[in-house]
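My hope is that you will study the protein record below before we discuss the fold together.
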Amino acid sequence: MEKITNIPDVKMGIIAVSRDCFVISLSERRRAEIVKSFSKDDFIYEAKTTVENENDMIKAVEEVKKAGCNALCVFLGNFGPETPETLIAKYFDGPVMYASAAEEHGNDLINGRGDAYCGMLNCSYNLGLRHLKAVIPEYPVGTADDVAKMISDFVPVARALIGLANLKLITFGPRPQDFFACNAPIKALYDIGVEIQENSELDLLVSYRAHKDDKRIPEVVKDMEKELGTGGNQFPDMLPRMAQFELTLLDWAEANKGSRKYVVFADKCWPAFPKEFGFEPCYVNSRLASRGIPVACEVDIYGALSEYIGTCVTGAPVTLLDINNSVPADMYESEIKGKFAYDYKLNDTFMGFHCGNTSFCRLNPASKPAVKYQLIQHRLLEPKDSKPDFTRGTLEGDIAAGDITFFRLQSAADTTLHAYIAQGEVLPVATRSFGGIGVFAIPEMGRFYRHVLITKRYPHHGAVAFGHAGKALYTIFNYLGVQDIAYNKPAGQLYCDENPFQN
């Protein structure tokens, strides 16, 4: 797996606060115990300034900034001073979480009582009065080990929020005709601090041609050959063209990121692309995704955005798939029914597919992943019964089995943001089909498909994070102000438009 380089490194800091009528050493001791709970590999900077007033707040914020911290835990070791502790979130340039101390011993509830359970209420109230954003864990009161776990859970959230604040989304071309489902009003991107640069397909073609005979192409070809091996490298004559395209995108990102640190792409990949460029871009897209630079198909702006969020959360490659086709009943009966820990129904299963953009490291080696040709595009664009030519370039194979999170952040036509999150798994079942594809299973998927994806008018693309990432994703979407965050409701919990009499 490639090293992910397009996401932030999070350096956490912790600031303790103390109300001046409480013993300050209580908050300081509890802060120190939290820091001790971290290993050397999970370093956290301990601010030595404890905040009792606004002057302390200014000093503490400067201290953590000087230490290079870009994310922060404000810890209420006792009740805490409402104004200074909330102003930390205002003056610190990065995501902030708040947590508070649980009481420790039944025989120490006079001088050793901190009342942080109460103080957390006032803290939340003041954050609201000041319109300040902060992450407050599900139950934000705990021991040193509890708070350390809250901070660890906050790190992937902080990574995504820092990444979004420094992200530019670069597009090439308008969405293909009849793909209005990927409609993408861009106002919502500005609302959450993401920049966008929209370009023509011609801009990309001109840049690609300018990279002809680039001296770096042979080195990239060697890397492709190493990744694919002999079995996967079915069209070696294509590799120089694809290497040229990879360099084109990477150079474009570097030259156009401007004031931003991170870049993702949403590119038009058909129908004109393969004929003019001479190949399908899917394999190159898969390689960039493996480095943390998603390249969304079909100019899916919010697909690219969703992929990037998933990459930040997991620190690993994600993919973008069509919620594509149902699993045949005979295949379900012979290979799925009653064979897994969760007793999936037929309509809990579906196939997630795209032409070949899923990273090599996410494909099942047993399916013999390889660069192939796009069957549908070959039918559409090349002479009947001819050998594939410019429709070659997809990376095809079955997606490896394991836990996944299917999710999407989407702007509706009215520019409001909506999201869904559904955790499930890719089953170890051969797909018997083409493309980058897997048999997915999500509990109560049939109802989720009807009452979330259809009712709320989501497009057919969904981002796939490998692993269960719903907890962090929900926190991120909530922080971003997304009012409608849907999920797959368990049996017995009805969706608002679900007919209670259907059964």
Observations:
- The longest strand covers residues 402-411.
- The chain has 16 helices and 18 strands.
